[in-house]
Amino acid sequence: MPRRTIRKPTNWSPKEWDRIEEAAHACGVPPLRYVREAALRCPLPEATVRRPRPTEANDRADEAANQLGRVLNNLRQLVRVAELDGDRGGASVLTNAASQVEDAILRLPSALRRETASALDRLVEAGIGLNALAHRANGTGELPSNLEVFRALLEVETAVQAVVP
What we know:
Layout: H1 14-27, H2 31-39, H3 56-85, H4 88-111, H5 116-140, H6 146-163
């Protein structure tokens, strides 16, 4: 495909641009691609299935799912290190925590709260702490101390419950 190097700004009324965005969204393409392909009479995907338009609530749900996925990944890494280290108790506690996060991910769309922004901030902070532990455990091949793990798990559990009650 030839590289597009020419830019031509255009002006749209708010109603016109809304119509373009709606039509592009229905086809599953970005609005500017929709305009370009419509102008060049290129075939566009059929607008058969209407997907919900992105909303602030959808954005929060996506961000929450992303953060919960990161937490789950770190928990699984810690489980692996605990299992390699022969720490059955630690592996069991971490596996239980991972199961709770998986459950939260499954319940997320129906349980998302409006005040999720501050809860997401707490989840990000808890995830950063958990990531540091997972990184250290992967580097040394040993699970951090029980106190460190339990503190991190408590922060994660509190943050997850704030996002998904």
